[in-house]
Amino acid sequence: MADKSDVVIETDFRNERLSLPPAPRLFLYTVSSSLLTFVLGAMSGGKKTSYQFLAENAHRLPRTHQGWYFYHKTKNYRVMLGGIQSGFKYAGRTMGWTLLYASTETALDRIRGTIDAANTVAAAVGTAGIFSWKNGFSRQLTKRTLRMSLLVGLGIGALQDGLIWAKGGRIWYLERLLDDSLTGVANTKRELPAG
């Protein structure tokens, strides 16, 4: 049986993306993207349901004050229901794609043994390729999607690497680049700030 003094709990996540371990980071990615797309999907679905209700009832518009009251009451309920259904549909799809991207990024981090922008770019391009194939995109649209995912992945990866570097973490290419440019000699160790 292990003694309490033998148990080591890692609390220094400077070298992790967003300074979070993988499980909470996956949760953060999926929940935040799902909430955002739920709102966007609910707005889009509500507007579509509103137009659909108007088109379905244009030939029988109410003529009394009470009729208009029930018309709008029914329309509002239908719009709310259509928006919520559409929001959940959008959120579910986005959650799946975000989970695929974040899991791929984390797996590449572990397989390569380093956290850098290359893993983010590979995960973004790979997810975009699967997305394009799954949705049956044309060759031209697939190229455009892959090009966009390359640029976005590179931007996100560079921002994450900059955040890791700013918090005192280690990014191999930044260490090599800065050490070579400042001293002319590559220094393999970087002093991490205490605390």
TrEMBL record:
It holds the Pfam family Tim17. It comes from the Eukaryota. This is Uncharacterized protein. It comes from Taphrina deformans (strain PYCC 5710 / ATCC 11124 / CBS 356.35 / IMI 108563 / JCM 9778 / NBRC 8474) (Peach leaf curl fungus).
